[in-house]
Amino acid sequence: MQTSLIFTPSEALTQPVGGKAQALARLGEKFPIPSWFVVSAQAFALLTAEQQAQVAHGNTAGLPLPETLQTQLSQHLSRLGGQLWAVRSSALDEDGSQTSFAGQFDSFLNIPTEQVAEHLLKVWHSGFASRTAAYRKEKGLHSGVQVPAVLVQRMVQADSAGVCFSADPVNSDRTRCVVSAVQGLGDRLVSGEEDGETYTLLESGEIEKPASPLLTDPQVKQICSLARQSEKFFGVPQDIEWAIEKGKLFLLQSRPITTLESVTWWDNSNIIESYSGITTPLTFSFASRAYRTVYRHFVRLLGVSDRTIQQNGHVFDVMIGLVQGRIYYNLSNWYRVLGMLPGFSINRKFMEQMMGVSDGMPTELKVQSSSGALQDTLDLLRTVGGLMWTLQQLPGARARFYTRLKKHLGVRKHLPAMGYSQLADHYRTLEAELLNRWDAPLSNDFFAMIFYGVLRQLCSKWLSDTGSLQNDLVSAEGQMISAVPAKKLEEMAGLLRNQPDLLNTFQNGSRTEILQALQAHSDLQKRFQIYLQDFGERCLDELKLESLTLQDEPEMLARMVARLSLIPPVSHDAQSRREKAEEIARQKLSGWKEKVFFWVLQHARECVRERENMRFERTRVFGEARKIFRSMGANLVKMQLLDDPEDVFYLTVDELLGYAEGTATSLNLKGLAQMRKEEFQGYQTLPGLPRRFRAAGSVYRQSLQTSTSLTLSETERQGIPCSPGVVRGTVRVVKDPRTVQLSEPTILVAERTDPGWIIILPLARALLVERGSLLSHSAIVSRELGIPGIVAIPEVTHWLQDGDEVELDGSTGVVRLIRAANQPSPLLEKQP
């Protein structure tokens, strides 16, 4: 029985005939493929040793094929009935996911039937080429000579032809499909002899194309559809060759795109409220450890299995990144984590709004719930029961959390007297008992997001509210620790107003002069010391360990009090707005709707209040960590391992603990700190990074690509309303609240705020913030203090300048520029 050396497409599926042939065989079941067959590489063994040597040296002219092979070849050519043929390689490891062998083997087009045998030998010869051997070595493949199987395919007499990438091969953007086309055959394009025309199909359906296009828009879309069907078929982005003959589109070849990099999206929309500007290695490593733990606890709380958490450990380990010294959310991993949660497929928009992700999920990510929409809904319903139990247990969990805080932070330790290993032990205890047991704040934050979001929806559906009634309802709650500093600062300012000599000392004196002068004013001195004790850790950028606190710089507190004493306090009637909002709800609701509404309102108020209170406790925990690390820095200076105690912030948590625990990978702490210090000083001179960007491959290897920029009006901007009230007046753009001098209450404009801004918020007529969400610190505190506020206003710190006159509505989120500081008449009057 004669052994077959040539295989039809159906036979090729089960034979060792190379990646290209097997791909074509699979594609032929679904797509329009020109008829073909494949000559097995084993057929090469039928040649004599002398004939094989001739092929190796390229002496193929006139060399006959063995009779058996020639007979089978003639039979297959006759069966297909073509006149011209494409003869090309199909090596065993060609067109693999990691090795394409593109351009390594010879291919021949428009070959007459009588010349197919000769060109079969030429393709085999290309297996001996030096370039092929070099490619194998580069890819770590078998280094011996390997002749390929050979495809023989009916030649399409193309009117136009080319290649198509189902993802952009340059920037790895999977939302863009790229087509290259030439008139006639595509061999000139594939070989690089001709550039051809390039078309890019965007996700919107728009096509970027040349001025005088060869292809019509429907043809481009049809080619891209073919490429993406092939991608779906194989499960990875594809590089296809195509041809159009008499209006019919053929797929000639499909192989994986081997040059695509993994794409990561980075975003700092929300995290910049906690970590602005350049952040040191110590703070980043400390925060990264916290996020790693917190997100694992978060998904476990919502019913994600331990197995799923373990399988996705790499995702939780990289929730944040450090780019040019700036902390960013790894948005890709953030969405992968949300995709694990029951209800993600139906509640994604809701989650995004509460978390402050202003632009939503990049379509390129295509993260879906791992279980599908129907199963996701069922999982969510099952999870609700567990959440109701967790809600009932929440008061007890909060109480236990505060008890642990009191136990571990209530007794003040004299850290400077501790040895290095004692400090490391103290940190380990802090991490184990508090940082790694952040269960109550996590649960509370989640329920704050849920109840506030539901309250917002109920106000819209049941009360027909189109403004921000929910903000009035949760304002003036009281018992919120973040509002206490404003009250205490105003009390001290009131005492200082009648003391002109002390006021001058507070304004201009040194730390020593201020503390000495306070000794003659016992009431003010007592309040001053209590404020430092209770709120001294609350400072600008309080979560950055390198930040100086009021305890480090008590003169800054004196300067704040002095400024407040020079300006009458601003009164905002949040309580009356809250009462009016409640009255509206009671008038419009009755029966079960009223009971449900006020049950939701009660929990929203409680959870939002405790969210801010627990954030204050986080400040205290971070403050204790800051003191530990500063003391470690002082110890390392004594041991001559650092030049300056502040250099400790250029080491990582693992490096500091490693020195105490015997796991250090380098003892040159001084050299590490100095190297990083110089690097991070260089980051200070670089321009700011975009709020959101994508990176293909390593974020450190490329120019950062920003997301699509917005077209913004110069006279009106829309943000998220977070605290109601209509205000018209001039603005003051504030970058550093510690240094700004205000002569009267004004509308404050900021990129973002944190608890350190409490030093000037009492002087705010209104607050306009570029970043933030409905549950950000800016939103919560502005509501509590009754300050009209809007967050997430696009580029507001660049749009507005000091002295611009604006009108804002904290109920709608609209800001209108009335008059620019350098314009004599209102801008809005000039508009058509």
TrEMBL record:
Residues in PEP-utilising enzyme mobile domain copies: 743-813
InterPro entries in alphabetical order: ATP_grasp_subdomain_1, PEP-util_enz_mobile_dom, PEP_Utilizing_Enz, Phosphohistidine_dom_sf, PPDK_AMP/ATP-bd
Superkingdom of the source species: Bacteria
Pyruvate phosphate dikinase AMP/ATP-binding domain: residues covered: 17-203, 211-261
Alphabetized Pfam families for the sequence: PEP-utilizers (PF00391), PPDK_N (PF01326)
Protein name as it appears in the record: Phosphoenolpyruvate synthase
Species: Deinococcus roseus
